[in-house]
Design brief:
The chain is of the alpha+beta class. The protein has helices at residues 44-56, 103-116, 146-150, 180-189, 204-218, 222-231, 280-292, 296-301, 363-373; strands at 13-14, 18-19, 22-28, 31-37, 64-71, 74-81, 97-98, 138-139, 142-143, 277-278, 306-307, 311-313, 318-321, 327-334, 339-345, 350-356. The longest helix is centred in the middle third of the chain and has 15 residues, at 204-218. The chain starts with 12 loop residues before the first strand and ends with a helix.
Length: 375
């Protein structure tokens, strides 16, 4: 899963209703590769997006791409490429992609709700919520606090060695069958190296642990908590963990470095760190909910707990500011064959989503689209 950047370390149409299928030819490793697109190329925004996407597809690893831009509350959707290399099927705003660590922002909102419900206190020693004894989870008498798990200052190792040391370890699906028991075994074996709460160091294991604490606090599984507090209220009907029941043509299948299909990741017992799959249509609703901040839990999840307003952390949200001083709340994700980016601009009622089913580098694309929204 990608570590989000943190500098504290961070055409025409028929009757204007039915867009005609269009193609863009892009130079890729000396060859011309046609890329399907539904971009109508009518507005300045359409052209700016297309120009940036053409640069993105110069990366020979690129396969499919879905983008949503929100400007003053209005969504704009753009889709390019294929849901599976060679299948000729272009994604759309309801195509489901892995979103990886973007899931952590959802976990931050659930934590905020637990704080409001007085199930958990952010300053609590995490051992209050763990079964058994963990004398190793403090440094010189200073314990790891709940909020340290959500702002990546806990000093918990990014990935526990017992993930890859297992006989059943699969490098293409590394967390498959990684259980709660293994998570806690790794936690027992960990050694603190400095004071928690002082140094940013991205940790998947910390957020996985936070997810189990939230499940125990409510006596409900992670997805049930998401459904009640986020997915149902904001009509995110296609955001899910389990996609086994869906037809194959609903999914943007992940691809490796040679544009070969690779497995979707299975994070069965540690979902809070990155198990969600979603669509640009659903994530536009998520952007609007986060920009509005009318939900007290969402608003609380945006409050800074580490760093500065220019480069800091809230509850699993990265905080930045644009050159013009606009606040940005963001989180991205990466799995074995998918990449995602989410940026919210509350002051502008704007935001963006990038979902990709390949390992092509989308960082320049994200920067270019942020510049368009924040100009």
């Amino acid at each position: 899963m990608r570590t989000p950047t943190l500098r504290i370390s961070k055409h025409f149409s028929f009757i204007l209703l039915v867009p005609v299928f269009c193609m863009i030819s892009l130079i890729c490793s000396g060859q011309t590769r046609p890329v399907s697109s539904d971009n109508p190329l009518r507005s300045r925004l359409d052209s700016l997006v297309d120009k940036s996407v053409q640069r993105y597809f110069q990366d020979k690893k690129a396969v499919g791409l879905s983008i949503a831009l929100v400007q003053r509350g209005k969504p704009h959707f753009y889709n390019y490429g294929e849901t599976r290399a060679g299948n000729g099927q272009r994604p759309d705003k309801t195509t489901i992609y892995e979103i990886g660590s973007m899931t952590k922002s959802f976990t931050g909102i659930i934590l905020a709700q637990a704080i409001l419900d007085k199930k958990i206190a952010p300053e609590d020693d995490i051992r209050k919520y763990l079964k058994g004894t963990f004398p190793n989870l403090s440094y010189k008498g200073t314990p790891i606090r709940i909020k340290d798990l959500a702002n990546h200052t806990s000093r918990i190792t990014r990935i526990f060695p017992n993930m890859w040391e297992r006989p059943t370890y699969d490098s293409l699906n590394p967390l498959s069958n990684y259980s709660r028991a293994l998570l806690y075994e790794g936690l027992h074996q960990m050694k603190m190296d400095t004071l928690p709460g002082k140094i940013y160091s991205y940790s998947n294991m910390a957020v996985a642990l936070l997810g189990t604490i939230l499940e125990d606090a409510y006596g409900k599984d992670y997805f049930s908590l998401l459904t009640k507090n986020i997915l149902k209220p904001y009509q995110m009907r296609d955001t899910r963990i389990d996609i086994a029941s869906l037809p194959a043509d609903r999914v943007a299948w992940p691809h490796g470095a040679q544009r070969q299909v690779v497995p979707l990741w299975d994070l069965g017992e540690v979902p809070a760190m990155g198990a969600l799959r979603s669509t640009t249509a659903d994530l536009v609703n998520y952007i609007n909910a986060n920009n509005a901040e009318t939900n007290p839990a969402i608003k609380l999840s945006h409050q800074r707990t580490f760093g500065t307003e220019q480069d800091g952390m809230a509850l699993n949200w990265f905080i930045h500011s644009t050159p013009k001083g606009y606040r940005v709340l963001e989180h991205g994700g990466g799995t074995g064959g998918s990449r995602s980016s989410l940026d919210c601009f509350p002051q502008l009622n704007a935001g963006l989503v990038i979902l990709a089913n390949s390992l092509a580098n989308r960082n320049d694309l994200e920067k270019a689209l942020i510049a368009v929204l924040a100009e």
